[in-house]
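pinned: reference chain
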Amino acid sequence: MRVIAGDFKGRRLTAPKGTDIRPTSDRVKEAIFSMVQADAEHAVCLDLFAGTGALGIEALSRGAKLVYFCDNSPAALEALRENLDACGVPGARAIVFKTDLQSALRKSGGRLPPLQEKCNLVFIDAPYEMCEYYSQILIALATEEKLEEGARIIIERDAGKGGYTLPDGFIKIREKRYGSIGVDLLIYGEDK
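pinned: its structure tokens
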């Protein structure tokens, strides 16, 4: 696994051993960024279920201003911090939250982490068994005012399983399949 373009191009990223973390393949990452390249430069990003940070670090490499990384796995957070250090990302451009989004979403009134700025690019790459929470995540992003109008949201999911319900305010503008992986590009708000 490596950074495929931009300032950190070619940098190897580490991932914890085992099957708990499922890093996005270079092929899928390339496809994702071909969809949002124009949106990545100067973006404020949110990388939910960040794992190793591969998507957020790719966004930083391609000119994103700031990325909020969220994960709750100690092994993933350790790999994420190692990857940020290896790329020389200053702390002002990468804010890491240790947060259990699954538990937060199960609780009534569970909230997403506090962000200093609204985001215009969001990556949601949860464990595939959490697809049922995608609608809740989108609703939380909107109701907690985490998104700018016109924000782009990338959802990576198991292409073979049922989808999720698209809440009001979101439109799916692209859907791609890469083997067993589905990638959806959504837009939020009025700037469609």
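why pinned: DSSP finds five helices and seven strands in the chain. The radius of gyration is 15 Å.
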